[in-house]
Specification:
The chain is α/β, with parallel strands linked by helices. Helices cover 33% and strands 23% of the residues. It has helices at residues 2-11, 38-47, 59-67, 144-152, 193-212, 214-219, 245-248, 261-272, 286-290, 307-312, 341-347, 363-370, 386-392, 403-413, 441-458, 461-468, 476-487, and strands spanning 20-24, 52-56, 73-77, 93-95, 98-103, 119-123, 137-141, 158-162, 174-180, 183-189, 236-242, 276-282, 297-303, 313-323, 326-329, 353-356, 377-380, 398-401, 420-422, 430-438. A five-stranded mixed beta sheet has the order 2-1-3-10-4, with helices on both faces. Strands 7-6-8-5-9 form a five-stranded mixed beta sheet, with helices on one face. α2 (38-47) packs across α5.
């Protein structure tokens, strides 16, 4: 009998022994410091009124508390906001599109990069700099009405806000340009046993509340815009091979991660593909990984598309745009000209070059690598850090790599050793990465849906910003031009 009692106690969810700590900003009609609001009413239905301890304060403060494990749940999170969290299958709500209002008599805003050239304003605390390119200047206001007054008086070039805050009487010459489409926001849970149990209960109860009609009752007039009516709980499993540390949950490296662009793009993509469940695995040899037998869809993230690979795999449109590959060397090659890599290794047989295992450098460079004397090629990992460490230790002298990777990591790996870099013949100034998948009927449909989601993302400020983060500052003007050429009509590429 004592054994049965102990077993029963073990089966009780861990979170029932203490209050569930919930944090949120104060949003009109949704979260209030007195405990009222739609989101808080929803959580009371899911977990029980007596189980919640709610804190309402500035979102930045609540986010810091969540990152310190002082909160069990954080409300109103975009998927990319916090890498270390669990998200349920069900969103909390769907946020309205973000638009830039501007005076069409003075300027035209036709592309997201146009924001970089003008003076803009938004409501203080909205942090719209996450969603738009860096403007010429910014001016925070305390209320949307102030922003629209500044726009009408010609004090600013554009005011960024939501359509529902637009004054009823606005002149026809005030036009708008969408900088971010409607997006899901979530309740984030801690990445632990308790968080997993809370997230599972959230999904289970949301399903029940929808079926009973209670979910529509809680949200009232806001329910049609939530997207709950079309939400499906069933999802197809997709295994994504990647070397992106944040996606893999790998934070053991002694090096600081210099950017999370690929993570942010993947979170945006995942958000728009709710019927797919992504699982991330460490990338090995791409060809071997995508030809393995598996019950789920098998895909690789940020793969370079070549004619040979296009015959083997289904490719998406571009998910990344970054500077073309360069040759990095621990030896001064004493030239200012573009390097013919094949000629260089023939003339200097003492040089050794590291080659990423299973990685393509583009069809032209792949042919060059195939022709090398094998004694001059050292096979190395295709992940970010290990090859650079091997280069610093002298295992080889040369490596072909992205400039932004070296800018981010080399100074941390080898603070004193000089590194030389050179442009390469047969390479483009900018290259694109894609999702590559096994060639199956299921993956064909998946790629169709991925491409549709990407087309929605191309015109947004957040997608523009995460690509720009992969580029050296000196190349910003060239990047803006290439971005517009590529993403205004991606089907040409």
């Amino acid at each position: 009998m004592q054994y049965k009692v102990c077993l029963f106690l073990l089966l009780i969810p861990l979170y029932t022994s203490a209050k569930i700590n919930v944090g949120a900003d104060e949003w009109h009609d949704f979260t209030h410091s007195n405990g009222s609001g739609i989101y808080l009413a929803l959580l009371k239905e899911i977990y029980g009124d007596d189980e919640l301890a709610v804190s309402i304060s500035a979102f930045a403060r609540m986010k810091s508390q969540f990152n310190r494990n002082e909160l069990d749940i954080l409300l109103g999170v975009y998927p990319e906001d916090i890498p270390e969290k669990l998200l349920p299958q069900w969103p909390l709500d769907r946020e309205a599109p973000i638009v830039a209002f501007y005076d069409s008599r003075k300027l035209n805003v036709n592309h997201i990069s146009d924001i970089e050239k003008i003076n803009v304003s938004w409501v203080r605390g909205y942090d719209f700099d996450r969603f738009v390119p860096t403007p010429k200047s910014t001016y925070d206001v305390n209320h949307p009405s102030t922003g629209f007054k500044l726009l009408l008086n010609g004090r600013i070039d554009a005011f960024i806000d939501y359509n529902y805050n637009k004054p009823k009487q606005l002149p026809d010459y005030i036009k708008s340009f969408q900088v971010m489409p409607a997006r899901n926001i979530y309740a984030a849970f801690q990445k632990n046993v308790q968080g997993k149990a809370l997230a599972a209960q959230f999904d289970e109860k949301m399903e029940e509340l929808k079926r009973s009609g209670k979910l529509a009752e809680i949200f009232g007039e806001y329910y049609p815009s939530t997207g709950f009516e079309t939400h499906e709980s069933f999802s197809t499993s997709v295994t994504i091979y990647t070397d992106e540390r944040d996606l893999l949950g790998n934070h053991q490296s002694d090096l600081n991660k210099f950017q999370s662009s690929l993570y942010n793009v993947t979170m945006l993509l995942k958000e728009q593909l709710p019927n797919y469940q992504f699982t991330y695995k460490k990338m090995g040899h791409l060809d071997n990984a995508l030809q393995a037998k598996d019950s789920s869809l098998l895909c690789a993230l940020n793969a370079i598309k070549t004619p040979t690979r296009a015959k083997l795999f289904n490719f998406s449109q571009a998910i990344s745009l970054y500077q073309g590959l360069r040759l990095f060397s621990t030896v001064d090659l004493k030239t200012d000209s573009s390097i013919d890599l094949s000629q260089l290794l023939q003339q200097q047989p003492e040089l050794l070059i590291g080659q990423h295992s299973g990685r393509s450098y583009g069809s032209n460079l792949d042919k060059v690598f195939q022709a090398f004397n094998k004694h001059q090629v050292v096979q190395t990992s295709n992940e970010e850090i290990t090859p650079l460490k091997q280069l610093s230790k002298g295992r080889f002298n040369l490596i072909v790599e992205s400039p932004v990777l070296f800018n981010g990591y080399w100074s941390q790996i080898s603070k004193d050793a000089p590194i030389f870099n050179y442009t390469l013949q047969y390479t483009a100034p900018f290259i694109t990465g894609h999702i590559a998948c096994q060639k199956t009927g299921l993956s064909e449909q998946f790629i169709i849906e991925v491409d549709a989601a990407l087309r929605q993302m191309y015109g947004t400020g957040i997608f523009y910003n995460v690509q720009k983060a992969l580029v050296e500052e000196a190349e910003y003007p060239a990047f803006a031009k290439v971005y517009r050429q590529y993403f205004e009509n991606p089907n040409k590429h």
